Structure formats: C-alpha cells, structure tokens
Structure to design on (1284 residues):
C-alpha cells in the first residue's frame, strides 16, 4: 500500500524523457497510465529509483487511421478505444477487446501502449494487436525503430525493448475493406485477469481468407499467435469444417498451466471453443455460409455494451458491400463510369 | 515536491513526497476523509475521485500527477448540509448501507450520468463494475442512479434548461 | 364531537435512513478518519511462512530509521505478559509471535512511526531468521497420528485436536436408520471464505499518560464485550477504558474477534504515551483475520420409500486455524450447527462435530453465518436435493412432504432447538409462484432437447438467531442479554442508547422506529446512540442477527416502561385515574371523551415540570433483555441458471427470494439486508475462496485473488415476503441480517447441479468456477 521512495520527473518533451531514461536505464520506469506500474510499486514488487511521467508529452494521443492503417499513440487510454467509433468494422478485434480490459475506472487511465510494454501474458491488448499483426514504434537514444509485436514479447513481463526506449505508438496495418474480428475473454469477474482470451481477425481476399490472425491470452509465457491455425485458414473458404479445424489447431497452440482458474486441459478447451465461436461470428458477418453457432448464456458479456455502441462487422465491410465497392472502381465490372 | 491541485473548486497546495498517493494527499494532507481506502490491489474503487471530471482510482495515482489539475471528491458534490441529485437518489432508493463504498459509487455514477443521461440497468451495472460493494447487492444502487436520471431530466424539463 | 385519532404507524414503514446524510456527504467517521494530536502510525510485519521456529528477530536497523519511534516484538510484549491473549472461545492466540509462527501472515513485529510510509519502510529493515517446520494444511492431515503438533506452546498438548462435541440422540438415530427403507449419503466441503467488509479492521489507541484514560477507537461489533476482554487481558482498570466504535464500514462478523493489532497498538500507546493508529491493509485482513467456514460435512438421511424423513446423521470436521478463536456461545463448541435438521420434521438426529488446528489463520465463525447456521443450512439443503434425485422425486415435493407444519410450533427439534413459529409451505408456495416453477420445469425439459442446459435450484431454510437466553448462551462467560436506555427530554425529543453496534444495518433508523411505534415520538425526534462504552448500556453487540431480537426487544420494553410512566403523568395532568386513559399511538385520551388528551410530548414536559408528588421526576429507563428463546426466521429461495456447455460458465437467469423474518420494522432496510446477503451467497457459490498450497501459502489474500462480485456479475433479485411473527418477541420481529447469506448458497449450488443432474451429476464443489462445471460436463458426457 505504500510505495518505496523514488525521484519523479515529468518531462515536457520526448527528448527530455529519453535523456532521463538514458541516464538511469534499469533504474527508471516510464509512467503513462500507471495502472500496472503503480500497483506493483505499492506492493513493493517494483521499486524504481526514478519514475518518468510521460503524460505531459505532446502528440502521443493519436487514435486515427492514416493511409489506411491505424495509429494508437502512447497516451491513448483504454477508454478512448472503448468509446471510439473507429474500432468497429475491420478493426473489430480491437473494438471488442477494449471494453474488456480490467474495469471501467482503470480504463480511464491505463494506456494501450503501456499494456504492451508491460507484456503481461494475461493482458488482452497483446493478443488483439498480435492478431492484427501490429508493430510498435519505439524511440530510444539511437533513434526510432519499429518492432513487430511477435518480436516484442519475449517472456512474461519481458519485452525486447531496451530500458532506454519508449513506445510512442502502435501501428496496425490496413487489413483491407473486407475484414472483421472479435475478442472473447473468459474472466471470473470484471477486473479479473483472463482465464483465457482469444483474439480473432479475418481479412478476406476474393471470397477466401486472405490473412487470419488468431492470438491467445493467458495460455503461454506471452500472448501467442496460433500460427498453424492461421496458416490453415489462409487461402481457405470459410466453412464449418475449416472453422472447426482451425479451432482445434488453436487449442494445440496454447501452452496453459493449471492453476486456481482451471486445469490446463480446461483452458485449452476454452481456446478451442472461443476460437470456434469467434470465427463463426466474424465469418457470418462477412457473409460466409457458416452456422452462427451456440453462444452460451455468458458470452462475451462485456461486448453487450460494445455491440450496441459499435458495429464490429459494419455493412461496408461485408462481402456484399465489397462487391458493390469493386463494381464502382475504374476497371471493375462496370468499366468504371467516372 | 510542491504540488498544487484544485480540489472541489479550491486551490490546495502542499509539500509532498513523490511517492505520496493521491488518496493519502486528499485524506491526510487535506483532511478530506470522504475518499476511502478499501484494498491494496486497485480492485475495489472505494478511493474513486474525479480527475478533470473523469473517475480515477486515487490510490493508483501519485499526488504529483495531479499537479495543476482538478479533482472532485465526494465532499465537492454539494455544499455542506445539502445533497446533490445523485446523493438524493442514493438516499431515496436505499443505495447505501455502511457507506464505505458510497463516495466512490456516487462519483462514478455522476460521471456516468453526465455521459449518458438515461442509462439502462445494464449500462449502469457496466459503468459501476469498477466499484465493489459488500452491503447492498447493487440493485438499489442501480435504482438510485435511475431515480437520479429521472430527476435530472424532469428538473431540466421544468426549468427549460437543456 | 369525538374525533378519531389515527397516529402514524412506524412498523412496517420504509422510513428513509437518518444515518445516510453523513455518509452521502463523505462525513462518515470511520476509524481511519480519526486524527488525534501527536498520533503515530503502526505497521505490521507478517510471517512469509506458515510454520517455523523463530531463531532471532533483529529490529536494530528498523529502529534506527528516522521517523521510527518504536519497534514492538513478542519478546517485549512477553515482559508485560501480553505476548499471548485469550480468544473468544477460551483458547489463546499469539499477539506477536515469540517461539514460532503458526500461519502465513502471522504478526511478528510492529513498527510505530511518525508517518505510515516510514512505518512501512521500516518493515523491510527487520530481519527475522526462520527455521521452517512441516506445514499442516487440512484438518484431516492435522488429525493424523504423528502430525506435527502446532500448539506445542500448550503444556501437554500432543495432538491438534481442538474440540469434540455432539448433539442429538445417537441411539434413537441408529434405530431410525435401521428402520428406514432408504439411506442417502452426502459429503461436502464448505470452503474457507472471508467476510471482507469494504473497511478493514483497525484502531486508534489513545492512552492518556496524564489522566490514565484509555480511549480506543476500534472497528468493533461488540464494544462492551471487547472492553471487558481488554480489561481482563491487560489488567487495565475497566472504568478507565472507553471503547468507541464510530462508523463501521461493514462487519459481517469480521469485527467481532480481538486482533493482535488492537492489543499491540494499545500497548504501544501505553508505553510511548501518544495515540497510535493501526489500520490493516487488505492483505492483512484477508490473511489473518476472522475467516469463515472451512468445514467438512458428511451425512446421511434415512427415509422411507414414500419420502418421509426418519433420521439424520452428520459428522462435521472444522478447520480452526492455529487457534480456536470462534466468536460463539461458549457451551456450543460448534456454534448452532446442530440446527442442521433445518425446516424438516426429522424425529431423530445425531450430530458429531470435531475441530482441528491447522497452520492457517484462526477463526471460522463469521461472514453472516449465525454461528455456523450457514454450514448447517447448506448441508441439509444439499442433502435433501440429493435425496430427491436418488429417490426420483421432485426436490420441491420432498421438502413439502417433510416440512414442520404450522400447528407443530413451538417445535422441539431432534437436537433440542425450540422453533418459535414458522409456515414453511406458505413461503415455498409464494417463491414457486413468483418463479413460475412448473413453467420453468417445462422450459428446462424443452431446452434439454435442444441441447441447452437449464437448472432450477430451491432452498428452504430455517435460521436460528437472536442469541440468546442466558441459561444457554454466553461468550467467555458474558451472558447474551442486550440493552436499551431511553430518555425523553422535556420538549418531547428523545435519546435512545443501545448495547448493539450497527455496521450498516440502519439501527439509527430502525431502533428509532421501534420507539416511535411504542411512544408515537417520530423517528426524526429520536437520536440513537451506540458504540461508545461510556455512553451506552452494556450489550453483547451486533452479529448473528441478534440486534432486533435482543436489543430491539429491550428497546420496545423500555419504551413501554416509559409509556406506563407517561400514563401516570397524563392521568395527573388530566386529573383522571390512569386506567381511564386509552393509548392512541402518540397520546393518551380519556375513555369516552377523546378530545381530552395528553400527547406524549406533553407528558414528557410534565415529567420535568409538573410531576405528581411521590413520583420521581424525569422520563427515562433502561431495560436489560434476556430473550426467552432464539428466533427462527425462514425462507424459500429459488434460482434458475443456464450453463454454457462449451466453457462451463453459468449465469443466473432468475433469483426469487421469499423471506419471513416476522414483523418487518423497515421493509426497505430489510430488503437491503436480504439483497446484500443474496449477493454474498452468490459470491460464495460462484467465486469466493481462500485456499492454500502445500507449503501453506495463502491464495486469496488480496482482492485480485479473493473475488468479490461486481455489479456486472451480481444477479437481479426478485423479493417476496410472508410474515409469521415470533410469538415471544415484544414486536414479533425475528431479525434478518444473515438469512440470505445462510439460505442462498445452497439455492445457487442446487441450481447449477440441477442443470447437470439428469446426467448423474450430484455435487459441484463451491466456489463453482466454470472450470469445475466443465470438468463435470466432460465426465457426464455433456460438454460441447
């Protein structure tokens, strides 16, 4: 309840922040939302000598698309994502994950990038963004570099970031017009860490799966990509058989351990069930001829809220909508009457 | 470090250690003891205050982070001896018993109503899911928020205010 | 013209609460809000290991830290004979460890400093050398021959047994079992959980070196009893000790025991000469303070083929932690567990209870359990449900067939309880009607065909509260009467002082209503005072739903005493004989001439200005009420759930709760108590758990691991009522604070089991996490 002493700096520029980190390295921690760092400090599981508060840095709160891709700046709070109209449709995986992070008050301060830097294998953003093949932009003493998420997470609470680097934003590539996704989380109560989470993202191309992203929460040393399942889906038509197979493969990709939340077998099973349900939802919205599938009484509870506010699978991103769009393009079936 | 925060409309300053949690700043330095501490893992929300109008858990912020910003605590909801609509709503609908979680509930509810003047039961339960209560079972708290929503709407209808 | 006077009615009325204003404005006065000049802050160093010898404790670095005033260890306390203290069950518990630590989280040293941050910095500087010992985690382990002896501090203690206690008639029960057509057995474990009120425990101990006055602001549900215990333990004179329980942020039984922190803070204040504040953090609260349950129950029900119950046998093994520290009546080693025949007319029963020490926190009687009635009620309701499945009959019908019938009251149970009143079938029928039971059963069958799993669970419980009659009930020898002192001022306002201690139950309103009902003084004119031992009559406090049955009765009785005197005063004013007056709710009227009247306010004024010669002035009295019996609230709860065959998650679709607590003083407050209790019942069924790994590490010592439901998980409740007054209570009220926590866990568990019962599932271990349901689904061939 009472953190150890530390020195506090609240720089006004990114350069100042980097300079401080450069000076103190491992002895310094970046404070953005603080909703992961401060609890650790209160339990004295973390006791940095210096805390660098980046909340005054300008230009880090972008939540917008740019050239088709999505940018989420370091100071974008979970709540901004939950409320944003932007994160439906093709960005549906993210829009579904946002309301499920922790609890509504923590979401007011906690940040997406902070969550990634924290690299908790039970963290939700890691999976949602992995599924969408995101990368972070990191600024350090030697300049700027991008790190794909699959290279960012190295182990529980361990990233490939140097202690002198700050994530300034996460970038999500444009999945194309016919894409959608969702995120399912089994938590024992709001605010509990995930027992299991599954992020599903599908980007269609010519009526088949172009790229599939399936990423798993709380079933491994980091957020995990179910790459075999993704590869099986890529290039396939979305059918019941394909979905069932992918779900089974996703379960095999999980490496859970047994604990008070459940046995490893149980968690693997939930991965399978959630992958199947997630794929069915997304596939149905994209116009694929699959069964809607059972939803269960306690579905993605939180998404009740989110589904009313956002459309994960907005009209323009359905197969029909895309065909309509294609017809109007120059060189399309209509010959492009422009 | 010197920290200066506008608390309930008044500028308050003090010399504090960087590690002083905002909740301790409010309770101990300013003697505003309406904000409570109920846990040590940021789980319970008894410490909820409004930071520039947004609910935050004041046990998971340092006072220095609030420098130059505005904080509203439960004491700031109404002049002493009077009750604001949300406080009235909790009284009317028996939305409190021991009162310990109540300040946090009031502030989270107030923020909800500002964003959503006519919330459904589900929306209320969702918005308050960061505030734990052991006494009430939440049902009367939902009723209290809805009572307040109706009152605010009828008040603004009568006065013609929007 | 005679005018009919109708006074306002004050019972059965949902008066808004008088205490709300200060809580709503953030002006409650909880222990942590108290700030005294010169106050110091205390932190506690807790043992990281569950069982170990202490070789040495080095506090020198901690003492040297600037801002630290003192570091207290067991060694220092031992010099003042304070290293050990008595528990409320007559055992001893360490204040600070001396020879050994016997649980993870045990208090080893305390730092007193100028600032709480420094007090916690200093904890890291204390070095303790532990020699780990083998750990005993379950009572079964601890009772095995050769198990490490935990309480080797006790001379001649060779094992880990705590108590053995029996109730009922073994021979009669054995005969019943011999004669029975069917015997259904059932084993279950009620896991360790915790009351976890939102406010943790704490105190500000202020020993004034000049006057010798000892003021302890304390989170105490029983201030007077605590004061007496303090006096006995410390040798400090009782009249100099004032215990003040200001506002309490919930109790639920967690604030009944005496904790080491209180004793050390007081000793520190005495030694240092300044006030010392100790507020425990949530981890301290969950890992070391009075937990609840941790009870293994095995039993058998003997029935005939037609479903008539003939006999009940129950064996119970309770995990007491490292000290027997239950807060319960001293003659009843297992509390009121022997109420286990519940709502049923079972002619013969035999209950055998045993308690054992383990390397865990002491306690066991807490969390709205009514002295272990939660365990008993859970057991019988789960056993009856199981019996129904075994016999192939509807669980509701089996209950109905065996209910104690209204004409059987007062009913003496096979274990010696005398139930005051009840009408179980009426409550059950109402609950089933509200639920739409028959329709729901049809829906369940249809859903099953469609591959969906619905479950319906019912629990019909009888509680026993209101401890208790002095011939049977005492805690550490203190009889369990309670008290009320009432004074009406000249201007007709009043002050009521009571011996019980609210922690959110609304006594400032409900007790004023009791007075108002007797005297017609409106509740807004009545100040209710409690929690200050210098300014209230002696009482045993609030827990086990005893306030309304005991202090509530005392309040009604003292009000009547004052009304009798007011009658004399009115007679004097009206110049008639007292028997010529009729009481009209808030005034006396002359029989036959009602416009000749004296209001209660006028009578009060006369008590100070115009009392008859020979009568004492004033209008004041005190009653110490010794209840003639316990009271027996009851109810019928019904829950409908749906189970997800893929993930094992379950969701409550409907929850109907019909309660009968006799006369309801304030229906709004009663319903609030019930909804709070139902939520706790749901929480225990679904998610609350304190458990330990094989090294004795406590899992569940913070709110990240110990799960309290939020508004999102908590179901909606549909409440109903029936009213069967208590014939022996002055206002017919029975008390209700714990009914819902007692009765509802079985309803929830019965519902989830019912969803799978058609495939042979009979038991799911609480807390029923989705993983456990899934495991059962897989084994039953029902998984998606």
């Amino acid at each position: 309840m009472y953190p150890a002493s530390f020195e506090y700096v609240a720089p006004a520029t990114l350069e100042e922040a980097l300079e401080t980190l450069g000076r103190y390295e491992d002895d310094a921690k970046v404070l953005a939302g603080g909703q992961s760092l401060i609890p650790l400090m209160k339990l004295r599981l973390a006791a940095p000598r210096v805390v660098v508060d980046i909340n005054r840095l300008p230009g880090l709160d972008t939540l917008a698309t740019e050239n088709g891709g999505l940018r989420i700046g370091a100071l974008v709070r979970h709540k901004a994502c939950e409320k944003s109209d932007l994160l439906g449709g093709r960005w549906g995986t993210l829009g579904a994950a946002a309301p499920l992070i922790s609890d509504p008050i923590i979401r007011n301060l906690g940040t997406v990038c902070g969550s990634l830097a924290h690299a908790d294998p039970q963290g939700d953003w890691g999976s949602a963004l992995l599924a969408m093949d995101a990368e972070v932009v990191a600024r350090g003493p030697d300049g700027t570099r991008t790190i794909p998420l699959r290279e960012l997470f190295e182990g529980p609470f361990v990233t490939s970031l140097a202690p002198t680097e700050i994530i300034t934003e996460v970038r999500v590539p444009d999945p194309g017009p016919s894409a959608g996704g969702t995120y399912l989380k089994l938590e024992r109560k709001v605010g509990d860490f995930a027992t299991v989470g599954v992020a599903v993202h599908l980007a269609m191309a010519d009526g088949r799966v172009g790229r599939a992203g399936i990423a798993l929460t709380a079933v491994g040393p980091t957020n995990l990509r179910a790459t075999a399942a993704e590869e099986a889906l890529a290039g396939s038509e979305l059918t019941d058989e394909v979905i069932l197979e992918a779900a089974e493969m996703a379960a095999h990709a999980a490496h859970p351990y047994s604990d008070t939340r459940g046995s490893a077998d149980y968690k693997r099973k939930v991965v399978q069930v959630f992958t199947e349900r997630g794929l069915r939802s997304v596939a149905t919205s994209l116009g694929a001829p699959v069964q809607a599938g059972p939803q269960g009484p306690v579905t993605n509870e939180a998404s009740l809220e989110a589904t009313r506010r956002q459309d994960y699978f907005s009209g323009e991103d359905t197969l029909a909508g895309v065909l309509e769009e294609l017809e109007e393009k120059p060189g399309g079936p209509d010959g492009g009457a422009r | 470090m010197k920290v200066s925060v506008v608390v309930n409309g008044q500028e308050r300053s003090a010399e504090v250690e960087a590690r002083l949690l905002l909740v301790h700043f409010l309770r101990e330095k300013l003697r505003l003891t309406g904000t409570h501490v109920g846990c040590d893992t940021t789980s319970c929300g008894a410490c909820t205050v409004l930071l520039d109008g947004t609910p935050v858990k004041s046990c998971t912020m340092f006072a220095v982070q609030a420098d130059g910003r505005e904080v509203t605590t439960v004491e700031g909801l109404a002049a002493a001896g009077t009750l604001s609509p949300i406080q009235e709503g909790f009284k009317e609908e028996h939305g409190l018993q021991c009162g310990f979680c109540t300040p946090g509930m009031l502030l989270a509810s107030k923020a909800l109503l500002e964003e959503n003047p006519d919330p459904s039961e589900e929306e209320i339960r969702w918005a308050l899911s960061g505030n734990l209560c052991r006494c009430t079972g939440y049902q009367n708290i939902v009723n209290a928020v809805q009572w307040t929503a109706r009152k605010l709407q009828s008040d603004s209808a009568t006065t013609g205010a929007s | 013209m005679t005018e009919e006077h109708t006074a306002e009615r004050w019972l059965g009325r949902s008066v808004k609460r008088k205490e709300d204003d200060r809580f709503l404005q953030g002006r409650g006065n909880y222990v942590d809000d108290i700030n005294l000049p010169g106050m110091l802050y205390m932190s506690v160093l807790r043992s990281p290991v569950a069982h170990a010898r202490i070789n040495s404790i080095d506090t020198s670095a901690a003492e040297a830290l600037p801002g630290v005033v003192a570091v207290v260890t067991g060694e220092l306390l031992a010099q003042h004979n304070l290293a050990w203290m008595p528990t409320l069950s007559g055992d001893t518990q360490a204040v600070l460890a001396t020879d050994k630590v016997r649980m993870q989280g045990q208090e080893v040293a305390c730092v007193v400093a100028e600032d709480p941050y420094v007090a916690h910095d200093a904890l890291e500087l204390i070095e303790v050398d532990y020699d780990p010992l083998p750990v005993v985690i379950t009572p079964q382990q601890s009772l095995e021959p050769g198990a490490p002896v935990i309480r080797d501090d006790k001379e001649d203690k060779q094992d880990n047994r705590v108590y053995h206690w029996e109730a009922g008639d073994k021979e009669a029960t054995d005969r019943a079992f011999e004669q029975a057509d069917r015997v259904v057995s059932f084993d279950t474990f009620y896991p360790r959980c915790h009351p976890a009120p939102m406010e943790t425990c704490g105190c500000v101990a202020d020993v004034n070196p000049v006057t010798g006055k000892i003021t302890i602001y304390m989170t105490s549900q029983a201030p007077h009893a605590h004061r007496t215990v303090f006096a006995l333990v410390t040798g400090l004179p009782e009249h100099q000790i004032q215990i003040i329980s200001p506002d309490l942020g919930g109790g639920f039984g967690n604030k009944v025991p005496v904790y080491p922190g209180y004793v050390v803070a007081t000793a520190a204040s005495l030694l240092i000469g300044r006030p010392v504040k100790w507020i425990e953090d949530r981890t301290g609260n969950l890992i070391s303070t009075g937990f609840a349950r941790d009870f293994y129950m095995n039993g058998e029900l003997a029935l005939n083929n037609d479903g008539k119950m003939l006999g009940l046998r129950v064996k119970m093994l309770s995990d007491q932690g490292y000290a027997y520290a239950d807060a319960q009546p001293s003659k009843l080693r297992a509390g009121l567990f022997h109420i286990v025949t519940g709502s049923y007319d079972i002619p013969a029963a035999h209950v055998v209870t045993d308690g054992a020490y383990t390397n865990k926190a002491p306690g066991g009687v807490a969390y709205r359990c009514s002295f272990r009635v939660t365990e008993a009620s859970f057991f019988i309701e789960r056993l009856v449900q199981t019996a129904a499945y075994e016999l192939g009959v509807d669980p509701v019908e089996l209950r109905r067939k065996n209910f104690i019938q209204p004409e059987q009251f007062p009913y003496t149970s096979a274990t010696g309880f005398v139930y005051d009143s009840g009408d179980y079938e009426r409550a059950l029928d109402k609950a089933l009607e509200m639920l739409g039971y028959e329709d729901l059963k049809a829906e369940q069958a249809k859903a099953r065909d469609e591959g969906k799993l619905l479950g319906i669970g019912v629990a019909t419980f009888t509680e026993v509260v209101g401890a208790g009659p002095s011939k049977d009930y005492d805690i550490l020898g203190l009889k369990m009467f309670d008290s009320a002192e009432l004074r009406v001022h000249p201007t007709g306002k009043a002050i009521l002082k009571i011996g019980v201690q609210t922690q959110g139950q609304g006594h400032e309103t409900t007790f004023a209503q009791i007075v108002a009902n007797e005297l017609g003084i409106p509740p807004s004119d009545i100040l209710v005072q409690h929690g200050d031992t210098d300014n209230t009559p002696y009482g045993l406090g609030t827990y086990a739903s005893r306030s309304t049955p005991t202090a509530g009765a005392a309040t009604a009785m003292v009000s009547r005493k004052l009304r009798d005197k007011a009658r004399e005063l009115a007679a004097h004013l009206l110049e008639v004989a007292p028997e010529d007056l009729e009481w009209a709710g808030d005034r006396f009227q002359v029989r036959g001439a009602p416009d000749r009247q004296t209001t209660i306010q006028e009578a009060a004024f006369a008590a100070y200005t115009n009392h008859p010669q020979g009568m004492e002035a004033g209008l004041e009295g005190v009653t110490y009420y010794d209840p003639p019996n316990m009271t027996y609230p009851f109810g019928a709860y019904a829950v409908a759930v749906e189970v997800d065959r893929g993930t094992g998650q379950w969701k409550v679709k409907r929850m109907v709760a019909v309660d009968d607590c006799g006369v309801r003083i304030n229906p709004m407050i009663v319903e609030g108590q019930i909804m709070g209790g139902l939520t706790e019942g749901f929480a225990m069924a679904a998610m609350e758990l304190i458990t330990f790994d094989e090294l004795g590490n406590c899992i569940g010592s913070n709110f990240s691991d110990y799960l309290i439901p939020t508004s999102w998980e908590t179901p909606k409740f549909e409440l109903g009522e029936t009213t069967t007054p208590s014939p022996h209570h002055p206002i017919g009220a029975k008390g209700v604070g714990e009914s819902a926590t007692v009765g509802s866990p079985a309803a929830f568990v019965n519902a989830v089991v019912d969803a799978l019962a058609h495939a042979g599932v009979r038991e799911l271990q609480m807390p029923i996490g989705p993983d456990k349901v899934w495991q059962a689904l897989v084994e039953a061939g029902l998984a998606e």
In short: The longest helix of chain C spans residues 547-574. Chain C has 19 helices and 36 strands. Residues 34-133+200-248+255-288 of chain C form a domain with the Aldehyde Oxidoreductase; domain 3 fold (CATH 3.90.1170.50).
